[in-house]
Design goal:
Radius of gyration of chain A: 17 Å
Distance between the termini of chain A: 26 Å
Structural class of chain B: alpha+beta
Structural class of chain A: alpha/beta
Strand order of the largest sheet of chain A: 5-2-1-6-7
Helix content of chain B: 10-25%
Strand content of chain A: 15-25%
Strand content of chain B: 5-15%
Oligomer: heterodimer
Order of helices and strands of chain B: EEH
Number of strands of chain B: 2
Shape of chain B: flat
CATH superfamily of one domain in chain A: Vaccinia Virus protein VP39
CATH class of one domain in chain A: Alpha Beta
Shape of chain A: globular
Distance between the termini of chain B: 37 Å
Number of strands of chain A: 7
Largest interface: A-B, 40 and 36 residues
Radius of gyration of chain B: 17 Å
Chain lengths: 180, 58
Amino acid sequence: MVKHAGGSAQYGELLHTDHLLWLLDMTPDDFFCDLGSGRGKLVLHAALKTPVGYSLGVELSRHRHELAMDALQELKNRGYDGLERGGEDERIALLWADFMKGPFIEESTHVYMANTVFGDTISNQVAERCLFSDKFKVLVTTRPLYGAPWLKQARAPACPSRRCIGRRPGVTGSRCERWV
Amino acid sequence: MRALGVRGRHHSRLRSRPLEGQQIGEFKQTYTWDENALGFVYAKKREDVPQRLLDAML
């Protein structure tokens, strides 16, 4: 199903999630969405450790989604606080869906997309939908967006690899494979 | 493309170069923070980016 939708079955575990969520500095008014949430690590982490109003994860792979739901159920069984807001509304949701076929991006203020194995087309479509969303604030990706003529680089970071031959990440038209 | 001496779409700088007149919004700022985080941040406006994130950027 993942391949049928144009995705990749490759999976990677995220590191530094705690640091990332601290940097995002989300408030109860914010809506966090992880596109391709996998086993729900970042979504659960956001709900547990940040005051974000709503944490949503959308995953296309059924198996990974079920693992994420198991993790959520386990947290509820252990009685973790913070998964519900005021004891009434749940502030976390894990969905088995294609994130391109729903209003997930338009509802979100903070969008995270681990697009290391996503194609440029999907990544740029997500960025474009963020652009036209009124609620949108920040999009975080694991790979720079290429090929979108309306994107401009505000700051070109130096490549951390000493063996890089000079192509810099994030600069439109150049790629640095060592960066990702 | 052929007339311009470009061998293919992978060799084309025209394909990925920002083209004037095609910008459709203010969504144009790209940031990154420390090398361990491996992330890139996009926002419509700089004010939308949390200060912690701005401080941590390269």
